[in-house]
Amino acid sequence: MPLERVAVIGAGAWGTALAQAAAMAGRAVTLVARDPAVVAEINARHTNSAHLGAQKLAPSVRAASAYADADLVILAVPAQASRAALAGLSLAGIPVVLTAKGLEQGSLRRQSEVLAEAAPGAVPYVLSGPSFAADVAAGRPTAVTLAGDDDAATEAIAAALAGPSFRPYAAGDRVGVELAGALKNVYALAAGAVDGARLGASARAALIARAFAELGRIVPAFGGRAETLMGLAGLGDLTLSCTSEQSRNYRHGVALGRGEPQPASLAEGVFTAPVAQQLALTAGVEAPLIDAVNLLLSGNVDITTIVAGLMTRPLKREDS
């Protein structure tokens, strides 16, 4: 299938970075932006200063105010905005790469489920893994997972997006990749809170390990594969998001751990945490860390009280 024309919907930092990556891979890229000023700036100056500062974009990245036509669509808007961004688009038979790492509030849907409802006939793929927009846009080495249902088609899309510094690894576990990407943001809130409360590096390491174990219970309960968690979309992304101040979710958690007012940020984990809790309850999966994050977000319990509760849970074998 031809994959020369790529449309990226969403001109925030992540969408712009992915447009840059696709251009560096040799594709002709249209970046769809709502703000006319952003469209004008990208086309005139090849920058998106509101989101990526002075970073220069490839000349083959062109901006437009609306989606027209493409061989491949990359959806790069926040998870809660995906349904609205897809409304009215004719995407039947078009491969759509979903890049938001979150679960939709209200419907409890994964992003591919939102796509199936909002744009029937579109072919879903999921891009996830340890990646920051600034690194991708600047051409720093980045490896991610691209998951789809058809192996050959997934490999073709991965090859079309692969460039000198951006390496997508094709995979088949779309559900597992989606869930790992969404849930790691919840755990990043917890890791940030641990650091914000100055509970120590040992506590943060333990949290990451137990978060990985919790993911290992949740992902298979919804049809994903446990082995997916050993890769970039699982362990790789979890580690990055739980340890780096570049992560919005981690920074949000730090503010919570310090007892500061919740920042007005687009931290996906804030929206995903209550959805994840509902899904875990529905599946009968024990998820004490997700429960703890929801307690923290409620504003009624501080981090030290929550940690004390976790530390007094009944002891059990780690391998059980």
Protein model, in words:
The chain has 320 residues and is of the alpha/beta class. The chain contains 14 helices and 8 strands. The protein has 2 domains: 5-172, Rossmann fold, CATH 3.40.50.720; 175-311, N-(1-d-carboxylethyl)-l-norvaline Dehydrogenase, domain 2 (Orthogonal Bundle). 48% of the residues lie in helices and 13% in strands. The protein has an 8-stranded mixed sheet with strand order 3-2-1-4-5-6-7-8, with helices on both faces. Helix 7 (151-161) links the parallel strand 7 and strand 8. Helix 8 runs antiparallel to helix 9, helix 8 packs parallel to helix 11 (248-257) and helix 8 packs across helix 13 (288-298).
* CATH first level of the largest domain: Alpha Beta
What is the beta-strand fraction? 5-15%
On the 0-100 scale, what is the average pLDDT? 95
Return the structural class. alpha/beta
- The CATH architecture classification of the largest domain is 3-Layer(aba) Sandwich
The CA-CA distance between the termini, in Å, is 46 Å
CATH homologous superfamily classification of the largest domain: NAD(P)-binding Rossmann-like Domain
Measured on Cα atoms, how large is the radius of gyration?
19 Å
Shape: globular
Specify the number of helices.
14
What is the chain-wise order of helices and strands?
A: EHEHHEEHEHEHEHEHHHHHHH
Domain module tally = 2
What is the β-strand count?
Answer: 8
CATH fold assignment of the largest domain: Rossmann fold
Give the helix proportion (percent range): 40-55%
Described by strand count, sense and barrel closure, the largest sheet is:
8 strands, mixed
